[in-house]
Specification:
CATH architecture: 2-Layer Sandwich
CATH superfamily: START domain
Mean pLDDT: 96
Number of strands: 7
Pfam family, one: AHSA1
Number of helices: 4
Low-confidence stretches: none
Structural class: alpha+beta
Strand order of the largest sheet: 1-7-6-5-4-3-2
Family: Belongs to the AHA1 family.
Shape: globular
Distance between the termini: 37 Å
CATH topology: Alpha-D-Glucose-1,6-Bisphosphate, Chain A, domain 4
Helix content: 25-40%
Length: 158
Amino acid sequence: MNPELDLVVERVIRAPRAVVWSAWTEPSRFARWWVPAPTVCRVDRLEVRPGGGLVTRMSDDGATFVPHLDASFVVAEELERIVFTNTIDSSWHPTNPTPIAMTAEVTFADHPDGTAYRIVVRHGDPASRKLHEEIGFADGWGSVTAQLAEVAESEVAR
């Protein structure tokens, strides 16, 4: 982790790693937490494997969906780690995404209370990191991580 280039979200999710992993890898579960509520997510592609696509749309009214993310997975180690980037789209074309080009590494580890969940979002330069922080990285990624925890923890509570 490079504090001049990277931003981090960490949280203990009170659910086993397999449950958190499935919330990340199953489209119907993923759609429930990927964008901050009340915005709604639609998953067009979720292929959690190296070279697989991650394509989502979002809607504020639940009827009209607009592009949200078109990215590629770089690493997928079952129950351990996922890495994706928006600098390569789901058809493997280089992109120049706005407002931020980034690579995100998500790790899942056992914790006495469930799963130690960590996201490191890497940027190409300090200005991009600063911009991402200023436009609400902590609120956005923090709120969707809380939503992920709600999805996973509610499945354990059943």
